[in-house]
Amino acid sequence: MPKADVRKILDQFRVSPEGKFDLSRHDPAWAGDQRIAKAERKLFAEEVLGQDVKALTDAQIRLWASDSWSILIILQAMDATGKDSLIKHVMSGVNPQGCKVTSFKHPSEKELDHNFLWRYSLALPERGQIGIFNRSYYEEVLVVRVHPALVKAQRIPDADPSKKRFWRDRFDDINAYEQHLDRNGMKIVKIFLNLSKEEQRKRFLKRLNEPEKHWKFSAADLREREFWDDYRLAFQEMLSATSTKHAPWYVIPADHKWVSRALVSTLLVETIHSLDLEFPEVTPENKAAMDGARRALEAEGDREKEGLTTAEAETT
């Protein structure tokens, strides 16, 4: 399957800004054309990832040099979806100096004294850089929606999470926030890693059964699994309400890590390429300065060679 087909495949995972979104119609175990042997599909996916890792290296250089756009990658998913390993594999060729991963935990008292978007704004990438939010402000319409008692700690005047209006207002705030960022040169790539409940069960068991993975297990993750259906409904409404033309959501199948890695890598490369980034144009003044520097360095090299030749002649 040619690389161009992978780009076309991405379209089927983009959430349309129009109409209601039905998460049940997206298969977490999707793995390409079933008529092709799995080994062949997996090999192709690994080749795509390898190509895109190299392409991301070049794209990041252009992003940095142009100093006009920045990239914000938002990763949302249920527990055990493989966000960390996906970041590790897809971003393996990126210069760490131009890329920062931020994971958000329970907000501090200081953060709760601000609006719900404040702490995320502090971590936004600068122009020319790539920022990755491992979970994000979307937790405010996911975990907070599943556990609405958390709203009380935010001390928002007249806030009532039992009202649909409260959540519509949050969606509106997020959409306006992202449009503001896009208008000011930040391209947002939003990825929901779609994991099945059965695959999550298997991965939790793997963490329990393999000693080297024990550190990954958290009893809190198992407690949150009890709210699986509530989270799926929250995700579905969030995806439907916040997938926009300037910042669409992509629902990426995640039961097979080799699938999600290949699709995400292609998505990132395509997104950066769509910005038509160019290296800064060299002005006549800069070109003259570089020509002068070149001549000076070449002359310095010639003098060193002449000095070496003279020294060699004197010793013979």
Word description of this protein:
It is a single chain. The protein is α/β, with parallel strands linked by helices and 316 residues long. It is built from 13 helices and five strands. A five-stranded parallel beta sheet has the order 2-3-1-4-5, sandwiched between helices. Helix 2 (38-66) packs parallel to helix 12 (257-273). The longest helix has 31 residues, at 284-314. It is globular and about 90 Å long. The protein starts with a helix and ends with a helix.
The major β-sheet equals:
5 strands, parallel
General form: globular
Distance between the termini: 68 Å
Q: Number of helix segments?
A: 13
Tell me the β content: 5-15%
Number of strands: 5
Key structural traits:
316 residues, alpha/beta, five-stranded parallel β-sheet, 5 strands
Strand-helix topology:
Blueprint lengths: L2 H9 L26 H29 L3 E8 L5 H8 L8 E5 L5 H4 L5 H4 L8 E5 L8 H4 L3 H4 L10 H20 L2 E9 L2 H13 L9 H7 L2 H15 L6 E5 L3 H17 L10 H31 L2
Parallel strand pairs: 1-3, 1-4, 2-3, 4-5
Summarize this structure briefly.
The chain has 13 helices and 5 strands. It has 316 residues and is α/β, with parallel strands linked by helices.
